[in-house]
Amino acid sequence: DTAVSQTPKYLVTQMGNDKSIKCEQNLGHDTMYWYKQDSKKFLKIMFSYNNKELIINETVPNRFSPKSPDKAHLNLHINSLELGDSAVYFCASSQYPWRDNTEAFFGQGTRLTVV
Amino acid sequence: QKEVEQNSGPLSVPEGAIASLNCTYSDRGSQSFFWYRQYSGKSPELIMSIYSNGDKEDGRFTAQLNKASQYVSLLIRDSQPSDSATYLCAVKRRALTFGSGTRLQVQP
């Protein structure tokens, strides 16, 4: 059973399009995250939700909008896609994020290519 | 200054040798540190976490933390070709803050 699953795994789209990435976790965690990994492998936090409430919103263009219908799901919608949005997007989840010893579990990633 | 810094590598070691991966961080108040391994095209997976100064061992892996020097390291003993991957150092803040990773190549 996959703990954190994302769909789709690959996404190729044209500039200007709108696309969504879905994420689901079956670990019973309260907190979910979206990370972006660029071509240099730098993994950067974008958003975090705790039990459907947005708790982290880093400096991300407002073309990116996360949505959490329940604590097991966190989706990412991107409007007006740009070439610079090409990256691998990882969903992750954790339990008790306020504790120091909490780790994050990652989904398999969605490789987004904007052409 | 980046919050978490790592040498991008590649770090090349022969099979059976000790690989030493290093990481420095800027926030002196950080308390929790993690090492993730990421194979090419795969997701990061946790190898070890460390919270106290000193060494923590788990099998072939040893994490070392020196909060005074703001330095974390990961030693991999008896390196195997299957250890070839990118190793990401992460510091716990509101969420995990990652370095850019060090690529390790273990030569058979």
SS content category of chain B: mainly beta
What is the overall pLDDT average of chain A? 92
The count of helical stretches of chain B stands at: 0
Shape of chain A: globular
Total number of strands of chain B: 11
**Residues in helices of chain B, as a percent range:** under 10%
The run of helices and strands of chain B is: EEEEEEEEEEE
Compute the CA-based radius of gyration of chain B: 13 Å
Q: What would you call the shape of chain B? A: globular
* Portion in beta strands of chain A: over 45%
> Mean pLDDT of chain B, rounded to whole units?
94
The main β sheet of chain A shows up as: 7 strands, mixed
How many angstroms separate the termini of chain B? 37 Å
Question: How would you describe the overall organization of this protein?
Answer:
The complex is a heterodimer of chains A (115) and B (108). Chain A is an all-beta fold and 115 residues long. Chain A contains no helices and eleven strands. Chain A has strands at 4-7, 10-13, 19-25, 31-37, 43-50, 53-57, 64-70, 73-78, 87-94, 105-106, 110-114. In chain A, strands 2, 4, 5, 6, 9, 10 and 11 form a seven-stranded mixed sheet that branches. The radius of gyration of chain A is 13 Å and the shape is globular. In chain A, 33% of the residues are buried. Chain B is built from no helices and eleven strands. Chain B is mostly beta strands. Chain B is globular. Chain B starts with a strand and ends with a strand. In chain B, the strands form two sheets. In chain B, strands 2, 4, 5, 9, 10 and 11 form a six-stranded mixed sheet that branches. In chain B, 0% of the residues lie in helices and 55% in strands. The interface between A and B is medium-sized, with 22 and 22 residues.
